[in-house]
Amino acid sequence: MVEEPERELDGGPAAELAMARAWLWDWLAGIFSYPFSLEDFRSRVTAKVPAVTEAAAALAGWGYTLEGLAEAARAAAAIGGEEELADLEMEFVRLFDTPSAGNRLHPTESVQRQGHVDLVLAGELDRLYRRWGLQPAPDAGEMADHASLESAFLSYLAVEEARLRAAGQSAAAVEQAQAGLLSDHLLHWMPGWWRAVAETARHPLLAAAARIGPGLLAGDARLFGLRQPV
Known about the structure:
Structural class: mainly alpha
Shape: globular
Radius of gyration: 17 Å
Number of helices: 10
Low-confidence stretches: 1-10
Pfam family, one: Nitrate_red_del
Keywords: Chaperone
């Protein structure tokens, strides 16, 4: 049995754990962001495969089970030209822009939890991002409760935790922010959404990436002492 991580450690293993988590959440954010260009896809996804693979190996030592990672890495490497990128773009449209039964594939928290776009919930998340000095890029074109933005924000918070721990400073506030984001948002909707994507996606990258998410989220829930996703 893998021992439970000791969150009270300053720097060292705790900082490395936070940074490994940050790499995985950042990668998922990149994969589930629309690939506007080959250069954009390579910078957000393909170029990060070596670091993500190393981070995943570290997380395995902390009890994380990340199914689908090797398949996702291979699928990302296979997108080497405009034709392969076009296949991915068309799959994004088919999955996320085309109405589905119960809107179960829509990549936003409010639609998954309430069945419709909720500007109040999106505004709550937007204010949360801004409190940490962040805001979605003006040309992002996504609601604040989009899967890619929530994942990217959790990655940012994990980086901040790693930075503070490596400097020997208290990471209590950023840990609390991560626990709140997980318990108030991600744990309520991402497990079901990922299952729907994994079952429906025809493109190997999206299907495999959707299998990574549940294990990463379950590991984080355990790490922060939160209820396990169902």
